[in-house]
Amino acid sequence: MPASLKDVAAQAGVSVKTASNVVNNYEFVSQSTRERVQAAIDELDYRPNLSARRLRTGRSNLIALSVPEIDAPYFAELASEIVDAAERRGWTVLIDKTGGERTHEQIAAAGIRAHLVDGAIASPLSMTAEDVAALSGSHPLVLLGERLPHVGGADHVAIDNVAAAAEATHHLISLGRTSIATIGASTESTGALRLKGFRKAIAATKRKHDPRLVMPVQEYHRQDGFDAMTRLLALDRRPDAVFCFNDLLALGAIRAVHLAGLKVPSDVAVVGFDDIEDGRFSTPTLTTISPDKAGIARAAVSLLARRIDADAAIEAREVFATHRLIVRESCGG
Questions:
Q1: N or C: which end of the chain has fewer CB within 10 A?
Q2: Model-level pTM greater than 0.85?
Q3: Confidence at residue 55, expressed as pLDDT on a 0 to 100 scale
Q4: Which residues of the chain are under the pLDDT cut of 50?
Q5: For the chain, what percentages of helix, strand and coil (3-state, to nearest 5) are there?
Q6: Are 179 and 212 in contact (CB under 8 A)?
Q7: Looking at residue 154, what is its pLDDT?
Q8: pLDDT in tens, 231-261
């Protein structure tokens, strides 16, 4: 028979209540007692009965996290930060990949199986404001990213993409680059906001800008960056700098510059966005906008806890995490 909480308490020589406090990660337990109970849990291979816990407390201490891609480094790193922040509250995170597909996003935002989880954190690409409104009040939800800014009924965590993109572009301008391209243009969400910041910075120089230097892409992967940079280098006046809307695009662009027989940064300076680990070990290392991923995670988990604990409907909040420009070798740093 599986071990019970009573078995754990007896093995550790504590009360069932104390054993329960350790299992639920309550703060007011001495370190020696916590270690003794944890040793009993490990020895007996105790597993909490989630159904019983849900019936007893109304909570499962499980939350859902949905992202478009698990293998994309930015989402993988962000998910890791969210798991860490959730663990500090004694929560377990169920992670789901949506592929940016609307129906899948709706299911994930509703908590995958709402009777199992206490709330959800979602990074949607295709959901609409109407989809979120339909969930309003029925399940605690926090949204990440730019696709659905400050929709009623759900909290929202993002960064100021316009300001961040303008900062990246201003840096290239400050280096004396005069033909600055961008890779990742889009008509919606993240791409649109970063394009707005790019154009704002370019406009401030009062220079005439070649519209061919604004390069759209279908996806934000390395191959897309490589292909876009190859097209830019084929122009009669190739760019001497490029701002890519994520680091994967930038890494692909650097490869294209290298295969064209040119050098980064002397011929083409490159800036990315996201500060993924790959960029710290690329050749050259990648200058990038670094969002505070740990701050995004802490804010999302805190907002979700606030919504889970609320006894009545509460006003949705919008939180902007910080960002900073990290100058590395791809811009001469």
A1: N
A2: no
A3: 46
A4: 55
A5: 45, 15, 40
A6: no
A7: 84
A8: 999 999 999 999 999 999 999 999 999 999 9
Instruction: Say if residue 284 is preceded by a cis peptide, omega within 30 of 0.
Output: yes
DSSP calls for 207-274: ----GGGEEE-SS-SHHHHHHHHHHHHTSSS--SEEEESSHHHHHHHHHHHHHTT--TTTT-EEEEES
Nearest to 131 by CA among 154, 156, 155, 100: 154
* b/e code 240-262 from CB counts within 10 Å (16+ = b): bbbbbbbbbbbbbbbbbbeeeee
Q: Give Cβ neighbours of residue 180 (< 8 Å, ≥ 6 apart).
A: 169, 172, 173, 202, 209, 213, 239, 240, 241, 242, 243
Q: Any residues with CB less than 8 A from the CB of 41 and at least 6 apart, and which?
A: 8, 22, 23
What are the φ and ψ backbone dihedral angles of 291, each rounded to 5 degrees?
A: -70, 150
Place of tokens 């027989």: 261
> For residues 309-325, b (16+ Cβ closer than 10 Å) or e, as one string?
eeeeeeebbebbbebeb
Q: Which pair of structure tokens corresponds to residue 312?
A: 């009545």
Collapsing DSSP to helix, strand or coil, 129 comes out as: helix
16, 22 contact by CB (below 8 A): no
Three-state DSSP state, 167 = helix
Residue 290 bridge partners (DSSP): 324
Q: Which residue ranges form the domains of the chain, and what is each CATH number?
A: 5-48 (1.10.260.40), 62-159+292-321 (3.40.50.2300), 161-291+326-331 (3.40.50.2300)
Residue type at 139 in one-letter notation = H
Torsion of CA 46, 51, 54, 57, to 10 degrees: -50
CA distance 331 to 244: 13
Beta bridge partners of 92: 62
Q: Say how far apart CA 104 and CA 96 lie, in whole Å.
A: 9
Which residue from 83, 48, 37 is spatially nearest to 297, judged by alpha carbons? 83
Residue with tokens 């899948």, as numbered in its chain: 104
